[in-house]
Amino acid sequence: MGDQGGDGGAASFDSLVGLLDYPMFVVTTMADGHRSGCLVGFTSQTSINPPRFLVGLSRRNHTFAVAQDAEYLAVHLLPREELALAELFGEKTGDTEDKFAECAWHSGPQGMPILDAAPAWFVGHVIDRFDLGDHVGHLIEPVAGNAPDELGDLITFSDVRDLEPGHNA
Length: 169
Ligand SMILES: Cc1cc2nc3c(=O)[nH]c(=O)nc-3n(C[C@H](O)[C@H](O)[C@H](O)COP(=O)(O)O)c2cc1C
Known about the structure:
Blueprint: H1 9-18, E1 25-31, E2 34-40, E3 43-47, E4 52-58, H2 62-67, E5 72-77, H3 83-91, E6 105-107, E7 113-115, E8 121-131, E9 135-146, H4 157-160
This protein binds flavin mononucleotide.
InterPro entries: Flavin_Rdtase-like_dom (IPR002563), NADH-dep_flavin_reductase (IPR050268), Split_barrel_FMN-bd (IPR012349)
Protein name: Flavin reductase domain-containing protein
Family: Belongs to the non-flavoprotein flavin reductase family.
């Protein structure tokens, strides 16, 4: 039986969002020569013209701390076969580990770290930040990127929901 109201709103919302499935991304950034990145599910395109995309970063994440001083974020789509990359960026924290020592990457537009295993990615200029609750929304305007004509299946929430996040939100 579903919950009909009362104080079960949060619980039923929890159950409801557990039924959703959506693409996962690795979001990287750099500020003051320091690189960071994490697995992110809280995203959305928010506008076509002008192009805009929102990235929700948890206040607890190392990536959030670095992003506070960053002008750009890089958003990577994750092909289904790159589950190990999703685990690396979703389960380890830059507080204690250098994730970039454990994967192939190169310096891309605006000095953003671009993951070699991700064929589709874009770099966005952070044009606004919003309090979203335990996450902070970073509104970005794409300035560069790469999108192949075709891409196979992507990693979605249902593929990674059982990972142990480096930080709980
Ligand atoms: C399924 C799943 C979804 C996640 N979604 C987000 C998200 O939307 N935003 C975020 O900041 N962290 C999210 N995380 C958590 C971070 O990826 C994780 O805590 C990571 O270890 C943080 O690394 P950092 O401390 O180096 O930034 C998610 C983790 C998992 C497993």
